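Notes from hallway chat w/ T.B., transcribed later so I don't forget. T.B. wanted the structure written out for a chain they're using in a teaching module, and asked if we could keep both sequence and structure tokens in one place. Agreed to drop them here.
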Amino acid sequence: MKRIISFVLLTLFCGYISFSQVKAGDNPFVLDKASLLELESKDKVFVVTRISTIEMNEITPLNGALVYNTDTNCLFQFRLNTWASLCNPDETITILIDNNDGTYSFTNEAGLTTQIQKSTFTDNGNDTFTFNNGDGNPITIDLNDADKDATNELNTAVDLDGTTLNVTDAGGDKGVDLDTTFATNAQLTASDAADLDKDATNELNTAVALDGTTLNVTDAGGDKGVDLDTTFATNAQLTASDAADLDKDATNELNTAVALDGTTLNVTDAGGDKGVDLDTTF
């Protein structure tokens, strides 16, 4: 008889639980009216399923399921039919699913899903798809960041190899040749060799002199000259000019008289008379 009573009570209790709210932990009779299940404790915690990445990917639960990934030490949520890490809440996720019926399901960052005809999509063969809806502005969707890790696209090193500047990220090295942009070490060495003392002052001019008709300019490298013969009168030319005017008196070359003798016009200066016959002129 006791067994029958116990079974009836247990059945009634289970029936009560199946149609009521449940709270575990502290204050078991104090819970919100909208709660189906509440946990409350000051010294105990709720622990979700702990599994590896391989184990996690083998499970396809209802959207909203939670697990703790022991490989990444992160909490994952199953949403939009895929596992998403909750350790990177700022990273947005888009999903493209082949429905195997001539359409794709595209889910954007806001979680909105759109059915797209396959005829508007081109698989580029490199984890990118080109979407063309006929408006003349095709859009390329890139699915290449499979690990959802934004940090491994950052540059990790920059170095100069000869004249090539190399920039390294998780995808390898990319280089650009700076040969025509800056002087190379060899060019700088050659420049130094041409100026062994590294003294900028000894390239200054130290003397200027006129040697005959040649103007010489001197610096630490020696003399450089230019002939001024056709530019100015030489000493010899000035001497010849002086010989034609021995008294160095400019006034005695002036005309002192002008007279008409018949049809002859005479002009007189310190050298005598000079005449011209004007017979045929007037």
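Follow-up for T.B.: The chain has a mean pLDDT of 77. Might be a good example for the class.
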